[in-house]
Each structure stands twice: as structure tokens, then as C-alpha cells.
Specification:
Elements: E1 2-6, H1 10-16, E2 22-26, H2 29-35, H3 39-49, E3 55-59, H4 65-78, E4 83-87, H5 90-101, E5 106-111, H6 114-123, E6 127-130, H7 132-137, H8 142-156, E7 161-164, H9 170-178, E8 183-186, H10 188-193, H11 198-215
Parallel strand pairs: 1-2, 1-8, 2-3, 3-4, 4-5, 5-6, 6-7, 7-8
Helix pairs in contact: 1-3, 4-5, 6-8
The chain binds erythose-4-phosphate.
Length: 220
């Protein structure tokens, strides 16, 4: 599987890269805006924080297909092998086709339905990002959408992968992976919740305390 962090926090990526088997880092315009660093600064910093390994994803801002292609070229001038995120609108589908013809890899984003994701795959996207939590939050079923999308891609667009996004809990991420979904991107708080359960900390502290009580000093 491929595991990504959905963040522009360079220090956090540097801290977590030795701990998680990271395939790279995904961003979106809100994440970049939140970090307040321009793309020209933050993308190279993220690449360095990953140790030069792993893929980076950043999104176009234009709404029209030709302008999206220009945005994609600007992004690839910053990071030459960057995967370009394109919202799956009507214009986005046209842009994905144009970018595929130019050999530029894309991720179809803002995917709220399996049919929308399938169309992006057929247009030539390498990845499709269904928004699991946002689907749940609006009364849909994010995990079911991931399942359907995976089946559709397997049958009709086997070269495209689901990269599931928008998670609020580790449980959502696990349920998604249990469907067989091959790649996910996690926000920092969800990734950290996976390794910082209070019960684990308490168990380790108890081992240390028992050891200290018995032998009067810590360590072996
Ligand atoms: C993915 O492409 C999106 O950038 C992101 O995962 C959305 O997550 P959110 O719903 O937590 O904003």
C-alpha cells in the first residue's frame, strides 16, 4: 500500500518520516494557505523533509482546462515529478485528458461519487481521491463509495488507483484499507492518533515504574 501525509507542515513531515512508511505528501490549496508559505518555498522544503524520496502532490487553482494545464506546468517547474491534483469538474476532466497527453501525472480530486471518479480515471488520471469523511458528513457513505470506485476501476480503468482522502479518525482509515484500498492520505492528527494511544503510554510507564521499584535504577 501507499501511505501519504496530507499536510504542508515541514517540521511534522521531518519528524514522522523516520516513523511512518511514507510514500509522500499530499496537499490542497486550503492546506497550503493554512501554512502561509508560498508553494515555491514549501514544496522543496517538503521534498527535503522526505529525504528526497516520495511523491509530492499539489493542486491547480484555475477553473478552465487550458489554465489548469498552465497551472500544472507551473507546479512541475517547482518539483519536476510532482503529481498534479485536478478537481474533477467538467473542465477538470478536459484538463486531465490534456495533461495525460503531455505525460503529466494527475490525481482527480474533490471526488464525491464513484461515477465522477470513474470518469476521471477514464480521462487518464493516475489516482482518484474520494473524500471519505466529507461524504459521511453530508449523509453519504464514504467507505461504500471507495468500495464501488475500486470495483469500477478494476473493471474499467485498471491503470488508475484510489488514493482515499479526508479522514477524521483512524477507524475511518482502517475501514477504508479493509476494503482493499491501496493508498490513503492522512491528516497529521489522525496519523498521530495511530501511535499515541493513552493506554500504550500508560503500559510503558508501568513497566518502567515496576522496574525502578524492583531494581532501584532505570534501564538494563
Ligand atoms: C484530498 O485530496 C483533500 O485534500 C483532503 O484530504 C480533504 O480533507 P478534509 O476533508 O479533511 O479537508
Amino acid at each position: 500500500m501507499e501511505l501519504y501525509l496530507d499536510t504542508s507542515d515541514v517540521a511534522a513531515v521531518r519528524r514522522l518520516a523516520p516513523i511512518f512508511p511514507l510514500a509522500g505528501v499530499t496537499t490542497n490549496p486550503s492546506i497550503i494557505a493554512n501554512g502561509k508559505k508560498p508553494l515555491q518555498v514549501v514544496l522543496p522544503e517538503l521534498q527535503e523533509a522526505l529525504g528526497g524520496k516520495g511523491r509530492l502532490f499539489a493542486q491547480v487553482m484555475a477553473a478552465e482546462a487550458g489554465k489548469m494545464v498552465e497551472d500544472a506546468q507551473k507546479l512541475r517547474a517547482i518539483i519536476s515529478d510532482l503529481v498534479v491534483k485536478v478537481p474533477v469538474t467538467a473542465q477538470g476532466l478536459a484538463a486531465i485528458k490534456l495533461l495525460k497527453a503531455e505525460g503529466i501525472p494527475t490525481l482527480g480530486t474533490a471526488v464525491y461519487g464513484a461515477a465522477q471518479g470513474l470518469l476521471a480515471a477514464l480521462a487518464g488520471a493516475e489516482y482518484i481521491a474520494p473524500y471519505v469523511n466529507r461524504l459521511d458528513a453530508q449523509g453519504g457513505d464514504g467507505i461504500q463509495t471507495v468500495k464501488e470506485l475500486q470495483q469500477l476501476l478494476k473493471l474499467h480503468a485498471p491503470g488508475t488507483k484510489v488514493l482515499a482522502a479526508s479522514f477524521k479518525t483512524p477507524r475511518q482509515a482502517l475501514d477504508c484499507l479493509l476494503t482493499g484500498c491501496e493508498s490513503i492520505t492522512l491528516p497529521l492528527d489522525v496519523a498521530e492518533q495511530m501511535i499515541t494511544a493513552p493506554a500504550v503510554t500508560a503500559a510503558v510507564e508501568k513497566f518502567e515504574q515496576d522496574w525502578l521499584t524492583a531494581f532501584g535504577m532505570p534501564g538494563l
